[in-house]
């Protein structure tokens, strides 16, 4: 049974940083593409960042480029999202997701999802 469990969300002031973690189990992470998605209140879910299993190449949504960094530790079955210089518009529930197929993650339909962690950027 595959499980993804996010942690690390919380309340942070604008300009602050948070590091989200995603603990995976039931899969061999090195064979899976991974991604972070977010959904703000009243908005559709959007992809924030994705990382390929083949070469660790990463994609970032335009608004987070230069501020967010995705990483993975296959030996520990962990995925991370370092978020710096946070802005109020980053407020959302953040979800970790994974799939064996690169395209599924890229188009936002990966098979496995976590339940999410709330990030609230507010003064």
Describe this entry's structure for a reader.
- There is one protein chain.
- The strands form two sheets. Strands 2, 4, 5, 6, 9, 10 and 11 form a seven-stranded mixed sheet that branches.
- It is globular and about 40 Å long.
- The longest helix has 5 residues, at 102-106.
- It is 4% helix and 48% strand.
- It has 123 residues and is mainly β.
- The chain contains one helix and eleven strands.
Question: Which key terms come to mind for this protein?
Answer:
123 residues; mainly beta; 1 helix
Distance between the ends: 40 Å
Task: Report Rg.
Answer: 13 Å
Shape: globular
Tell me, rounded to a whole number, the average pLDDT. 96
| Uncertain residue segments | none
Q: SSE string, helix = H, strand = E?
A: EEEEEEEEEHEE
Instruction: Find the count of extended strands (DSSP E, 2+ residues).
Output: 11
Short description:
This protein is 4% helix and 48% strand. The chain is built from 1 helix and 11 strands.
SSE inventory with pairings:
Layout: E1 3-7, E2 10-12, E3 18-25, E4 33-39, E5 46-51, E6 58-60, E7 68-73, E8 78-83, E9 92-99, H1 102-106, E10 112-113, E11 117-121
Parallel strand pairs: 2-11
Antiparallel strand pairs: 1-3, 3-8, 4-5, 4-9, 5-6, 7-8, 9-10, 9-11
């Amino acid at each position: 049974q595959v499980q993804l469990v996010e942690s690390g969300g919380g309340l942070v002031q604008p300009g602050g940083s948070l590091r989200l973690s995603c603990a995976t189990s039931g899969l061999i992470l090195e064979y899976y593409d991974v991604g972070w998605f977010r959904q703000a209140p009243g908005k559709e879910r959007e992809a924030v960042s994705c990382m390929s299993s083949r070469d660790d190449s990463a994609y970032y949504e335009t608004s987070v480029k230069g501020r967010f960094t995705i990483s993975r530790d296959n030996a520990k079955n962990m995925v991370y999202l370092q978020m710096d210089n946070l802005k109020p518009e980053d407020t959302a529930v953040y979800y970790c997701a994974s799939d064996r197929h690169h395209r599924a993650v890229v188009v936002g339909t990966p098979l496995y999802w976590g339940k999410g962690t709330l990030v609230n950027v507010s003064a």
